[in-house]
Task: inverse folding
């Protein structure tokens, strides 16, 4: 590998972005904890009854399990001598009791495992549904800022962290707490002074737990971040694998991935280091208490204040008292990891859709398609793209938007499709402000086709039918025919049932554009927005699309952004934009005949055709 | 069936032997693994010390009333107590050091492998499936190596040792205990097998779900503009429910498994009691012997119980290893031939397609069939053809993103497959139709394959591509451009991709419709600047419009999988009707314009 040996620690390659918040301000940690705990509470609340039942089950089950060793003791003390004396009945009874306890224990264990599995899976399903739905509802501005890799890591690895907690945690915690509680009581009852000695172990335990909790919160939070960074690197690499390979990016990527992977290891190492200290510390405290009990107990026995048998059973129980505390420690570990994941998840869930659905929508079952921009101002972060735009597009008119990059054409289109809401002013469809329309009505009426034609996995027919779920095969084919995509689709090995594989890998960009065109036409909207939707088509395909557009746009409102002026020819009206303003407005013929910018552009374009 | 790499293998081979795949990855950390294991074993032994010392205290100082003898015994107990805690710490410390590193190494290996697998592989595999292997499967492996493997070994050893002790103590009862393990093993194995299949299904379904998540997030614009959130959600929901169904099946099997391992020692204890009682009554065994036997057996309670889920976990890890192994085993078909050495490639170089044919793997129909084309050094040839005629495929053959299935592509007479990939891809630069940008700084995006590029090189490339707008970004060249350049317009992204390709003046430039997203004005500027570069570079330019074609010295028409005609734009326009049909735009406006 002839890669240049640059220090992978150097993070300048990532560049600078506005959203860099690795270090949390002091108060934020507590806020995050509360938020994630609230989410966990919300998720568990519907299962309160089941959880109580589970608790009852595991308590009885544990009792049955503890009965086993007890019964064998009785068996040895009572049944064996009885048998030696020729009386087999005590042995029969004890054995029966043991088998019954075993059966009860096993049966309840089965019930517990399956039931708690059901609760855990229900919680996960709810969480998956909720986060997925929420992410879908969040505006494009969120997605552009958050990056898909991070969103994906929220919906995959963070959800799985909670799964781990639900898988192992519940069982461990309940069993352990139950044992600690019952045995603690038994200890105090058995011999109060020794019980007190045993309880002396608690203050140091508390301190150790506090230490662990304080440090591990930050440590686990960090692990969620490093794993997300890995996922981002991963998804981007394999999403852009052609560019990666063509530009020999592999060695550099190996370095970057190795650095992120090492980061992730260190973050986990830190978290695991804390457990590596915490768990043995619990053991150490337990063992020290045991030695103390043994010493003090022995002295008390010598003084005649305590029976030997009591001391022995006390010590046996003491062991069972501290062992489960390790389980509690392990539970705490998965709990911390899950809480850190929940912090991230609740962060996404608290993102408010800035383009919210109206609470009280105005119904618009069949839109005519009149589109009005009224004093619209819009900008992304700092810069204003559209200072003050007013425009009326009558129903059925086809409008072409022309202008240089950055003139605000795409922004205008996005506002019309309500990907964003204007900062000031209003966009109205048939007189109704877009933010008063139910999403369903709006999307039925307004459809936008962009130049990036994303195809979903599935067949070509599925992808076209995405425009109108439930469309018949004839309708799908009709849409494909209408825009001239039928030819190439029919020529594919499996025709409309051909799998587009991952991201339409095997279709050319032009073919993908045709498919997404067909998808939009099948949707049959009143307003169609085409944002450079024909950029990858060759001339004959474009011609076919334009012929189709002529008929298809006859009774539809259309906003067309195109760099090729050929597209403009089918427009009723041309708007030339510059710096967020409309600087020319008229029919194509008028503008060409004039002396404005469009006439100049058109001349340049006409020259290029020769 | 190379199109369906998602389903679990139907046969149940693989099993635990799949775990052996991990073996090489433990090599650098064997010392630590041994230390982890030793510490675990010693800690288990240390745990036994406390009851023994207790017995000694009861039998010694207490029985004798000797307070002085208490001190050394307590000291010993203290020693073992501290030792146990210390061993715990050592075990966890060593485990952290080894298992996190093994996970890291394995993930690095997977990532490196995947990066080198051919584009055809990535076309075939949903990336969600890759992702779930690199994350969830990896952490399964880590938890196995760090925890389950160690205790599987320790507990098995404990079981064997105690069984031997039981046989020594009273062999008839020992044999009885041994016999009870037969149904345990039979049932266990049966359910382990079922568990193996189920955990594989669950893992695959998680991959499906990850794919859905990816598509829903990356295709969010399409989803939103068509208002299909509901549909997408329903799909995801169906898969999430299917995952829950599979998980519950797995939970059920695990519960059964667990119950068998929980029931077994308790039933065995009853057997011991009955057998022991009769042995005592017949005088074959003393009561003390029976107590010792029972005490020994109770040591086994936890190890046996834990074996149930440890085996289940091993199964889960085995299928995770299978899933990871599938990727690691995938052949890197586009790779350096053995013994290739860098050849002298001129700048500019002569690019030739000699009888080139290409068929997508698993497809019966050839996309390209007998392509003959020569691009002379310094010449620019435009490639024109109908949508789907194979232009992009042809360009992908130059940099070996795909390998030809027949014929050959040569640079200065050298087959591209006889060049080291690293050399080939530094000689050939490509600008793709879809301008892929990564979420990193502009500079890093531009210098993707040329980390040694100077500031001047970058400035020059930006000038050629008319991408100087980057200087107006908040942090200039250091600005992180959003993932896939989402926050840039299509035209801006395309210009950056172009700048990337021309950076460092490659010997061969392949441009796939490089100006499609540019407005007329910018296009004219880019064309002017590009002409300089193309003047002394060998270039193959996929073109859809006359303006792009005019950049070229000659035009090749691709039709029916071969080059149908070659000539200048005006020659072809005049003599080839198919070409005229492809490039001559009909313009009503032009006709109506005075």
Result:
């Amino acid at each position: 590998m002839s890669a240049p040996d640059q220090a992978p620690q150097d993070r300048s390659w990532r560049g600078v972005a506005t959203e860099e918040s690795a270090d949390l301000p002091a108060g934020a940690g507590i806020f995050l904890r509360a938020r994630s705990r609230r989410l966990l509470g919300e998720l568990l609340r519907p299962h309160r009854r089941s959880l109580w039942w589970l608790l009852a089950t595991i308590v009885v089950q544990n009792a049955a399990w503890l009965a086993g060793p007890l019964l064998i003791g009785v068996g040895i003390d009572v049944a064996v001598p009885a048998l030696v004396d020729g009386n087999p009945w005590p042995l029969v009874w004890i054995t029966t009791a043991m088998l019954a306890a075993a059966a009860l224990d096993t049966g309840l264990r089965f019930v517990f495992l399956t039931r708690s599995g059901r609760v855990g899976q229900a919680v996960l399903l709810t969480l998956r549904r909720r986060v997925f739905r929420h992410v879908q509802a969040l505006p494009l501005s969120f997605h552009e800022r958050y990056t898909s890799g991070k969103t994906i890591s929220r919906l995959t690895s963070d959800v799985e962290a909670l799964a781990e907690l639900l898988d192992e945690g519940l069982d461990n915690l309940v069993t352990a707490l139950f044992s600690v509680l019952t045995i603690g009581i038994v200890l105090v009852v058995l011999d109060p002074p020794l019980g007190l000695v045993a309880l002396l172990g608690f203050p140091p335990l508390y301190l150790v737990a506090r230490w662990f909790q304080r440090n591990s919160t930050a440590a686990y939070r960090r692990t969620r971040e490093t794993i997300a960074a890995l996922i981002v690197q991963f998804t981007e690499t394999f999403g852009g694998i052609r560019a990666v390979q063509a530009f020999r990016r592999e060695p550099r990527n190996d370095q970057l991935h190795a650095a992120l992977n090492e980061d992730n290891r260190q973050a986990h190492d830190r978290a695991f280091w804390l457990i590596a200290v915490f768990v043995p510390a619990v053991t150490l405290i337990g063992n020290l208490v045991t030695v103390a009990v043994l010493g003090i107990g022995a002295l008390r026995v010598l003084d005649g204040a305590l029976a030997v048998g009591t001391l022995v059973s006390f010590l046996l129980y003491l062991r069972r008292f501290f062992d489960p505390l390790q389980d509690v420690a392990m539970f705490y570990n998965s709990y911390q990891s899950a809480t850190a994941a929940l912090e991230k998840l609740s962060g996404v869930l608290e993102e408010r859709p800035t383009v919210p659905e109206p609470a009280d929508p105005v119904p618009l079952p069949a839109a005519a398609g009149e589109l009005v921009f009224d004093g619209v101002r819009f900008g992304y972060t700092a810069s204003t793209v559209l200072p003050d735009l007013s425009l009326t597009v009558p129903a059925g008119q086809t409008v072409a938007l022309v202008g240089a990059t950055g003139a605000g054409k795409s922004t205008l289109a996005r506002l019309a499709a309500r990907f964003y809401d204007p900062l000031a002013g209003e966009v109205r469809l048939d007189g109704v402000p877009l933010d008063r329309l139910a999403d369903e009505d709006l999307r039925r009426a307004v459809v936008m086709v962009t130049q990036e034609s994303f195809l979903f996995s599935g067949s070509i027919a599925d992808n076209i039918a995405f425009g109108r779920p439930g469309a018949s095969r004839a309708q799908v084919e009709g849409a494909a025919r209408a825009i001239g995509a039928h030819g190439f689709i029919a020529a594919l090995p499996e025709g409309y049932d051909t799998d587009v594989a991952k991201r339409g890998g095997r279709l050319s960009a032009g073919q993908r554009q045709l498919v997404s065109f067909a998808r939009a036409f099948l949707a049959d909207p009143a307003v169609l927005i085409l944002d450079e939707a024909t950029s990858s088509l060759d001339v004959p395909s474009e011609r076919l699309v334009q012929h189709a557009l002529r008929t298809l746009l006859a009774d539809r409102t259309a906003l067309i952004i195109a760099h090729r002026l050929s597209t403009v020819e089918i427009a009723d009206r041309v708007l030339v934009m510059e710096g967020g303003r409309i600087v020319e407005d008229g029919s194509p013929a008028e503008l060409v005949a004039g002396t404005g910018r469009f006439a100049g552009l058109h001349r340049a374009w006409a020259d290029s055709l020769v | 069936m190379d199109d369906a790499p998602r389903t679990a293998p139907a046969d149940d081979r693989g099993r635990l032997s799949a775990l052996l795949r991990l073996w090489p990855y433990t090599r650098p950390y064997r010392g630590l693994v041994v230390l982890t294991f030793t510490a675990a074993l010693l800690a288990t032994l240390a745990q036994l010390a406390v009851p023994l010392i207790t017995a000694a205290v009861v039998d010694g100082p207490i029985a004798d009333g000797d307070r002085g003898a208490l001190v050394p015994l307590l000291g010993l107990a203290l020693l073992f107590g501290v030792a146990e805690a210390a061993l715990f710490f050592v075990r966890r410390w060593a485990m952290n050091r080894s298992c996190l590193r093994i996970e890291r190494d394995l993930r690095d290996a997977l990532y490196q492998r995947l990066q080198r697998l051919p584009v055809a592989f990535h076309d075939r595999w949903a990336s969600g499936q890759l992702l779930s292997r690199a994350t969830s499967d990896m952490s399964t492996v880590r938890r196995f190596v760090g925890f389950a493997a160690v205790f599987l070994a320790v507990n098995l050893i404990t079981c064997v040792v105690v069984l031997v002790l039981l046989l020594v103590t009273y062999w008839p009862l020992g044999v009885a205990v041994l016999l009870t393990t037969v149904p345990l093993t039979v049932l266990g194995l049966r359910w382990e097998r079922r568990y193996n299949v189920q955990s594989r299904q669950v893992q695959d379904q998680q991959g499906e779900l990850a794919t859905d998540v990816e598509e829903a997030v990356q295709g969010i614009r399409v989803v939103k503009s068509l208002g299909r959130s509901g549909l997408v959600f329903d799909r995801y929901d169906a898969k999430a429910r299917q995952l829950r169904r599979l998980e519950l099946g797995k939970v059920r099997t695990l519960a059964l498994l667990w119950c068998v391992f929980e029931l077994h020692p308790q039933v065995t204890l009853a057997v011991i009691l009955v057998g022991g009682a009769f042995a005592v009554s017949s005088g074959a065994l003393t009561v003390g012997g029976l107590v010792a036997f029972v005490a020994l057996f109770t040591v086994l309670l936890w190890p046996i119980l834990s074996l149930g889920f440890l085996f289940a976990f091993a199964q889960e890890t085995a299928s995770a290893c299978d899933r990871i192994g599938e990727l690691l085993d995938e052949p890197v078909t586009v790779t350096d031939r053995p013994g290739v050495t860098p050849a002298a490639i001129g700048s500019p170089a002569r690019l030739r397609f000699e009888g080139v044919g290409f068929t997508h793997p698993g497809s019966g129909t050839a996309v390209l069939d007998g392509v003959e084309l020569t691009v002379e050094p310094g010449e620019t040839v435009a490639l024109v053809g109908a949508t789907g005629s194979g232009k992009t495929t042809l360009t992908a053959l130059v940099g070996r993103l795909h390998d030809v299935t027949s014929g050959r592509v040569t640079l200065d007479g050298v087959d591209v497959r006889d060049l080291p990939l690293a050399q080939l891809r530094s000689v050939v630069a490509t600008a793709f139709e879809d301008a892929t940008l990564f979420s990193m700084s502009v500079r890093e995006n531009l210098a993707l394959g040329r980390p040694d590029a100077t500031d001047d090189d970058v400035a020059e490339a930006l000038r050629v591509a008319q991408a100087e707008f980057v200087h107006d970004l908040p942090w200039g060249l250091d600005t992180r451009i959003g993932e896939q350049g989402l926050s840039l317009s299509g035209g801006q992204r395309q210009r950056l991709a172009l700048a990337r390709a021309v950076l460092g003046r490659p010997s061969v430039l392949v441009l796939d419709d490089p100006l499609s997203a540019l407005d007329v004005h910018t296009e004219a500027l880019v064309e002017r600047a590009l002409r300089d570069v193309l003047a002394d570079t060998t270039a193959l330019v996929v073109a859809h419009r006359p303006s792009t074609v005019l950049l070229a010295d000659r035009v090749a028409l691709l039709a029916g999988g071969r080059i149908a005609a070659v000539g200048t734009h005006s020659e072809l326009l005049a003599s080839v009707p198919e070409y005229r049909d492809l490039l001559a735009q009909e313009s009503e406006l032009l006709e109506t314009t005075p």
